[in-house]
Amino acid sequence: MEAGNYTWVVEFLLQGLSEDPGLQPLIFMLFLSTYLVTVSGNLLIVLAILSDPHLHVPMYFFLANLSLVDVGFTSTTVPKMLVNIQMQSRAISYAGCITQMFFFLLFGDLDDFLLAVMAYDRFVAICHPLHYTVIMNPQLCVQLVLLCWTISVLYALLHSLLVLRLSFGTHVEIPHFFCELNQVIHRACSDTFLNDLMMYLAAVLVGGGPLAGILYSYSKIASSIRAISSAQGKYKALSTCASHLSVVSLFYGTALGVYLSSAAAHNSHSTAMASVMYTVVTPMLNPFIYSLRNNDIQRAVKTHLREICRWPFF
């Protein structure tokens, strides 16, 4: 194909989860309800932590940041999907697609790094309890979150700029419900070798780095717990990690499931369906996992709900 046939595409067409018109109302209601539960649940966690002085400790500081990131992560994809279903349109502008891709990569990577930071926090709390308040001081906590933001912004910016150099045809359909990086790259007319190289390299470094940190932290935590003599002490140590470990398993388990399903099926529609798990379901379940397994969060959430119910319009 000659260079003259390449053009800057005005808009992309998102195929969504299904092209069956009869399923669109069901998909709309499912995603709308899921989105509302995700946003309200995560914001409730944040408000509960902010309003309860007993929760102003590193573990809950990181949890509040994770909840805000989950709201942003879901808000990057679901609202646009809902608007497209309601307007009976599959279109997303070129600028809108690049913007959505940037924020999806940003919040997804932030999730990854914050989970690693939370694992480090649990490592210090269990393996070095006497030095916990000295090591995990407020200044370090803020610096860790800022570091997560800095790396994530650079990661998302790198891929967005690399996509901007690509040329696309006049009619570009993306077999997904959002502008997923891999799908967009492989719809380009120009050479994508550099994009593919950076995508896999960054996945190993940015994705594998936090995972390695989590595994290292929990290996040290497991060794420390085995050294505890009393069963009650072991249970108490495990209970402080249970919620985080559940969220880590859910996040990496669903992401790995998406990768394996796409590699095995070679079906973009199946990949889009599997992506719902880590883009929509996981952020929705996180508040429930932390509130069900954590008495402090339960107490703070109940207190905050009682205060909301006293507001005049209730």
- C-alpha end-to-end distance: 64 Å
Order of helices and strands: EHHEHHHEHHHHH
What's the mean pLDDT score? 86
Give the quaternary arrangement of the chains. Answer: single chain
Instruction: Report on the biggest sheet.
Output: 3 strands, mixed
User: Which structural category fits the helices and strands?
Assistant: mainly alpha
Q: How many distinct helices?
A: 10
Total strands: the figure is: 3
**Sequence of strands across the biggest β-sheet:** 2-1-3
Task: Work out the strand percent.
Answer: under 5%
Sum up the overall morphology in one term. globular
Radius of gyration: 21 Å
Q: In percent, how helical is the residue content?
A: over 70%
Uncertain segments are 1-7
Please provide a written account of the structure.
It contains ten helices and three strands, in the order βααβαααβααααα. By secondary structure, it is mainly alpha-helical. It has a three-stranded mixed β-sheet. The chain starts with 10 loop residues before the first strand and ends in a 5-residue tail after the last helix.
Can you describe this structure in just a few lines?
The protein has helices at residues 24-51, 58-87, 94-127, 132-135, 138-164, 181-185, 193-227, 231-265, 268-292, 295-309; strands at 11-14, 91-93, 172-174.
